[in-house]
Amino acid sequence: MIRELREDMGLSQIELAEAIGVSERTMRRYEQEEDSIQIGTLKKIFDVLGMSSNNSFFVQQMSSNPINDVQHSKNVTKSLLSPVTKSSNACYLVEENENVHKSSLSQSFYTIPVLSIKASAGRGNDIMELESYESGEVMCIDKGFFKSPPNAKVRIIQVDGYSMIPMLLPDSWVIFEESDVWRGDGLYVLNYDNELMVKLLQKLPNGNLEIISANKDYKSFVIERDTQSVVRIVGKVLRSIL
């Protein structure tokens, strides 16, 4: 990713290395993904390449079917998260109309709209239609994190609250596909009684729906089949960013 963007700018490897204050050997290792890049260094690289770098993250990859084998919420964290440490997994925010070498971005990244509202991992937030909360920013995320291209209804939203620790932290981000269709047990953004939340959902054999908090200090609860109209699925989470 860095090499492609550098070449698009017409910079040599040594020129970029000198601009950010590292050796040519270190820059070569960055480009070959042999060394992790500190966030501060990554911001310097983006600055030299003329990109916005207000936020930089390392992505945590989630399994495609996260709780098939989960018997209890204690097992949730172990089955959901597979940490990724390679520096190539960086993503960052840009303004939606910002000129940031789009030819290189389209080859390496998907751009996903960022919502201005937060999804609570604790107390919820009253919500309207999600289009009302589009911030004008997009998150650029390496294509390697998706098994297939995300559709036009993929969104990214920030988490607020403590009930999903250690799976999600306050100010973590989740990428979700906006759809009210049940797609099996897993992590969802949901509208619970007109409050936007991010929770684990598990359908029980009797048709009841368990809403699970990963943090043992917060209670999980069950919505009976006859009263599930108070819950509306907003979308299943595809990836998380801690």
Which helices and strands, and how do they pair?
Elements: H1 2-9, H2 13-20, H3 24-31, H4 39-48, E1 56-62, H5 76-80, E2 81-83, E3 90-95, H6 102-108, E4 109-120, E5 125-126, E6 134-142, E7 154-160, E8 173-178, E9 186-192, E10 195-203, E11 209-212, E12 221-223, E13 231-241
Helix pairs in contact: 2-3
Named at the architecture level, the CATH assignment of the largest domain is Ribbon
CATH superfamily of the largest domain: Umud Fragment, subunit A
Number of strands: 13
Overall shape: it is elongated
Distance between the termini: 21 Å
Query: What does the average pLDDT come to?
Result: 71
Radius of gyration: 20 Å
Might you state the CATH topology name of the largest domain?
A: Umud Fragment, subunit A
Structural class: alpha+beta
Kindly summarize this structure in a few lines:
InterPro entries: Cro/C1-type_HTH, Lambda_DNA-bd_dom_sf, LexA-like, LexA/Signal_pep-like_sf, Peptidase_S24_S26A/B/C. The protein has 242 residues and is an alpha+beta fold. Helices cover 19% and strands 36% of the residues.
